[in-house]
Design brief:
Blueprint: H1 4-19, E1 24-32, E2 39-46, E3 53-58, E4 69-75, E5 84-90, E6 98-106, E7 113-122, H2 125-131, E8 140-145, H3 176-179, H4 181-194
Parallel strand pairs: 6-8
Antiparallel strand pairs: 1-2, 1-4, 2-3, 4-5, 6-7
């Protein structure tokens, strides 16, 4: 009984921590190039602290044949089309036989989405049937990430400039003949002087 008490307290603490994690909701839109305005594609509930996401609702777009390209993204300000951030993809990426993944890029320190990415890949029909249980219903994956720091140059010493404020020109590297001409000259003199003895 006494051994179970610490495990019970730990499980309760973990459950409370997970329940207290704040979540946010984001509406991702699809916007064909010829259409006047975007329409909802999916609603995502994500956690900025754990970077987990679930799809609340998904409506695969019904695109006409004249829509070849579709924008996928979100509006940071509702009904303000200038606040659109997203990507452009082919309309066939929403057809049967394609897997889709939406990537939400969060701000470095904030919890707001600064960019929406989209990728789709064709999979074989047998695998598609197994993945959708033969029903053909489309599903979409969501991945939440934060920006990663890029490489930083290693600076070991400052650049030295001359009195005019310019970097001094380096002399071109000398060839082997220019560096060791005196060795070749000495070897030639010894060869000429030493060859006269019998």
């Amino acid at each position: 009984m006494f051994l179970q008490l610490p495990f019970l307290l730990l499980a309760t603490l973990v459950e409370l921590t997970i329940a207290a994690t704040p979540t946010r909701t984001l509406s991702v839109h699809q916007w064909p190039l010829g259409a006047p305005s975007p329409t909802p594609l999916l609603n995502v509930v994500y956690s900025p602290t754990t970077l987990n996401a679930t799809v609340e609702s998904y409506r695969p777009p019904r695109l006409s044949k004249n829509h070849q390209l579709v924008r996928v993204g979100h509006l940071s300000e509702p009904r303000n089309f200038e606040s659109w951030t997203g990507v452009l993809t082919k309309a066939e990426a929403f057809e049967e036989g394609y897997t889709q993944q939406v990537e939400l890029l969060l701000g470095e320190h904030g919890d707001d989405v600064i960019h929406v990415g989209f990728r789709a890949g064709r999979i074989p029909s047998e695998l598609w049937k197994r993945k959708t249980n033969g029903k053909g219903a489309q599903s979409i994956e969501v991945k939440v990430t934060r920006p990663k720091k890029g490489p930083v140059p290693e600076l070991d010493r400052p650049i030295v400039v001359n009195a005019e404020g310019k970097v001094p020109e380096t002399e071109p590297e000398k060839t082997m003949l220019q560096r060791y001409w005196w060795v070749f000259l000495g070897a030639a003199v010894i060869a000429l002087v030493g060859s006269g003895e019998k």
